[in-house]
Amino acid sequence: MATNKPTGDNARKGAVRKRSQVQNPKTGLWTKRNSETGQFMDVKTSNSKPFKGIRKER
Fold first, then answer.
1. Cis-peptide into 50, omega within 30 deg
2. Sequential pLDDT tens for the chain (58 residues)
3. Which end of the chain, N or C, is less packed with Cβ atoms under 10 Å?
4. Distant-in-sequence contacts of 20-23, Cβ < 8 A, 24+ apart
5. pLDDT at site 3
């Protein structure tokens, strides 16, 4: 059985639900999006890698 223990270590098993990410073609940055409302939530500016644990849109 999959568990998320120990608590407090910032480890997660599986993907984050109700979220997706897409890469901006102009800037090349990854943008996190709420799947229910379609609202953009966050832009990752630290490096060119995508958000961890969030599925990618096509």
1. no
2. 556 677 778 777 777 889 999 999 999 999 999 999 999 999 999 888 999 889 999 8
3. N
4. 20/54, 20/55, 20/56, 20/57, 21/50, 21/51, 21/54, 21/55, 21/56, 21/57, 22/56, 22/57, 23/50, 23/56
5. 66
